[in-house]
Design brief:
Order of helices and strands: HEEHHHEEEHEHEEH
Oligomer: single chain
Number of helices: 7
Shape: globular
CATH class of the domain at 12-151: Alpha Beta
Largest sheet: 8 strands, mixed
Structural class: alpha+beta
Strand content: 25-35%
Strand order of the largest sheet: 1-2-3-4-5-6-8-7
Helix content: 25-40%
Length: about 210
């Protein structure tokens, strides 16, 4: 974990246009059958810290477990900065049944001009194995290809993270190869795989 890594109040097309205009706009809230993907604010500090302070969550995350709540505060501030600079979008994954934040998902290294981004996510271990990651990923991929009009969505995954590799391949991602010594974590460098999914591949898999 993370094994990587969700209808909107305003129309998707309007969101996309306003992003291009560079104006400050309402954050794109998304929904699936069981999940609501929302903007992460300092109101969610305890939930974010509670998830990212777990070693089993950060094992394949590219960072050490959080020790202080201030680390979560800094991360939330970074999410906001990246969004307003159009360099990334991060959603909080909220269960509809109890309104609990169970993880986050989003696009990193977003380059609208090059029509590409990398996807990442994490879930609290109590909610692993319930299909929530897959459900959220599908919604984000739809949003990425249809509304942001990206051409490529990539993913960087530890070779040991077999669950994420299996999930991404099931969604149509192709393993492009090994990046040697790509992530430094726990005082050592780690190799990672790089995977990608192209717009036409996603559309074909969805019967579009």
């Amino acid at each position: 974990m993370p094994k990587f890594f969700i209808f909107t109040i305003i129309p998707y097309t309007l969101i996309y246009r306003m992003w291009n205009w560079g104006e400050t706009v309402a954050f794109p809230t998304l929904e699936t059958k069981r999940l609501k993907l929302i903007e992460i604010t300092h109101q969610h500090l305890d939930s974010i810290f509670g998830i990212l302070s777990l070693e089993e969550v950060t094992k394949y995350y590219g960072t050490d477990p959080f020790v202080l709540p201030a680390e979560a505060t800094k991360l939330i501030d970074m999410y906001h900065k990246n969004y307003h600079e159009k360099r990334g979008i991060r959603w909080g994954i909220k269960l509809k049944e109890n309104q609990r934040i169970i993880g986050t998902i989003g696009l990193n290294s977003l380059q609208l001009n090059n029509k590409r981004a990398e996807i990442g996510y994490e879930l609290h271990p109590a909610f692993w194995g319930n299909g929530f990651a897959s459900e959220a990923l599908k919604e984000i991929l739809d949003f990425s290809f249809q509304q942001l009009e990206l051409y490529r969505v990539g993913a960087v995954v530890y070779p040991e993270n077999e669950v994420s590799l299996k999930l991404l391949k099931k969604l149509g991602f192709t393993n492009e190869g090994l990046l040697r010594g790509y992530i430094y974590q726990n005082n050592q460098s780690h190799d990672t795989y790089v995977l990608s999914l192209l717009k036409h591949e996603w559309e074909e898999s969805q019967g579009e």
